Amino acid sequence: MRPQAHKNTLIALCAVAALGGCSAGPDGVTRSPFSALGFGKPAPVADTNAPALDTTTPDGTESEVIATLLTRRSILPQGPYTQVSDAVLAANARAAEADLRAATLRAEARSKNWLPTLGPQVSLTSLGTIVTSLVVEQVVFDNGRKKAERAYAKADVEVAAVALAQDTNTRVADALTLYLTAQKAEARAKVNADAMADMEHFAWIMDERVKGGVSNSVDRMVVQQKLNQMQSDMASDQEAAAAARAELAAMSATPLDGVSGISPLPTDLTATPLAVVKAEAEATRTVAEARAARAGFLPGLTAVGNVNKNGADAGLTVQADQGIGLGTGAALAAADQQAAAADARVAQTREDAERSLRALQGELASLRRQQAQTAALAEGAEENYRNFAAQQKAGQRSVNDVVGVFESAVDLRRAAAALPFEVARVELKIAALKGVLVDGDRI
Fold first, then answer.
1. How is the chain split into domains, by residue range?
2. How far apart are CA 328 and CA 325, in angstroms?
3. Would the pLDDT of 443 be above 70?
4. pLDDT digits (tens, 9 = 90+) for 123-158
5. Non-local CB neighbours of 411 within 8 Å, separated by 6+ positions
6. Do the record's keywords include Signal (predicted)?
């Protein structure tokens, strides 16, 4: 390159730098537009070993949303619940984490959008000559469009972070639901297994009575049918438990066959539901998007430098990203309306979460009442069965009478055995709605 070309190049670049220096960086501090270009530096690569949630966003500011997520604590007590939770989290594929890292890299790229852009320009002159130029552009004033783009990228990271928290909590909730399903089926099957000896004894008595001509075959068939039904119910429960256990094993890193038992969970939780947190983050992102769209309709000021073999020049251009037409007014109004729509969605999400919470609390109160009543009824039915059995031995009751009472007692015992797990299921749903099944620093 000739000395004069060197001089022209420097003049153009310095002119753009001087004009661009009038604009502030992302933190509001005026700086040289070339200080952070990073010529010759390799492209940033995501560190897959780094924590998924980081309160410091790519633009250097702190995210209150992510900080709040990190402070959340799990309400699961040490015991079977935490054993299940640890096992399924260890095997988590963490697809939502990949989305979060992608959003973080997009925000990293957006955080540098205030810097000048450089690029080649190839044109064909009227004389058929190809002219190659290096064009440098620096936005001086853009009505806040690039600032809104940075805000959008930051909010996009926060939305992805909340989605990751939701995904992790949902995984633990699904695993614990399978665990409770297996426990419930096993408890019901145990009731039948414990009662099977008595029912088989009644069937034997009826066989002997039919052989002795005391009872007819119809009575024996009735008792045998009840025995068969009890065996079928037990087999169905055992199959349901095995299916739930198998599905749980498929999503666990360690075996959970020996884990059993349940623990009460607190339900007076103050944490904001994750669905509401996500809606608020999405509203922030929508507002930023609307501001960027609105700024695109307004004229901005850009410094442009052009360097080619014939020399260099620099200047200012005034232009808008979006053309102005008959529909511009409506487009601007639509951009303004996006913010109101976002607020409405947050309010609707908050209302839906509150309704779901109230419904679960009502269901929980009903189940607890049923649990107490069913336990009392089962105890009364057991006492009634013992009285009928004693009367049958004394010849005062028929075998069919005792079998009918015994069947009712078994049904109540099965219901009483299942209700604690139904209560635990609703408690788990409330905790999942609030998003407090996993510690924030484990997400």
1. 51-262+269-319+341-434
2. 5
3. yes
4. 665 555 565 666 666 666 666 777 888 888 888 888
5. none
6. yes
Task: Say if residue 253's pLDDT is above 60.
Answer: yes
Coil, strand or helix at 140 = strand
Q: Which long-range contacts (CB under 8 A, 24 or more apart) does 48-56 make?
A: 48/101, 51/441, 52/94, 52/97, 52/100, 52/101, 52/161, 52/164, 52/443, 53/100, 53/161, 53/164, 53/440, 53/441, 53/443, 54/104
Place of tokens 């972070």: 161
Q: What is the CA radius of gyration of the chain?
A: 36
Tell me which DSSP letter residue 442 carries: G
Contact criterion met (CB below 8 Å) for 428 and 177? yes
Cβ(335)–Cβ(296) under 8 Å? no
As separate numbers, helices (DSSP H) first and strands (DSSP E) second, the chain gives: 9, 4
- From the list 263, 257, 254, the residue with the least C-alpha distance to 78 is 263
What's the pLDDT tens digit per position in 263-306? 999 988 999 999 999 999 999 988 888 888 777 766 667 666 67
Find all residues with CB under 8 Å of 221, minimum gap 6, and list them.
Answer: none
pLDDT of the residue at 99: 72
Long-range contacts of 18-23 (CB under 8 A, 24+ apart): 19/138, 19/140, 19/303, 19/314, 19/316, 20/116, 20/138, 20/139, 20/140, 20/303, 22/140, 23/114, 23/138, 23/139, 23/140, 23/141
CA distance 297 to 143: 9
* Four-CA torsion 95, 99, 102, 108, nearest 10 degrees: -130
pLDDT at 115 over 90: no
CB 281 within 8 A of CB 158: yes
108: CB partners within 8 A, 6+ apart = 44, 58
Over 90: is that where the pLDDT of 30 sits?
A: no
CATH among 2.60.40.1180, 3.30.360.10, 1.10.260.40, 1.20.1600.10 for 51-262+269-319+341-434: 1.20.1600.10
Task: Determine the Cα–Cα distance for residues 300 and 19; give it in Å rounded to an integer.
Answer: 14
pTM recorded for the entire structure: 0.78
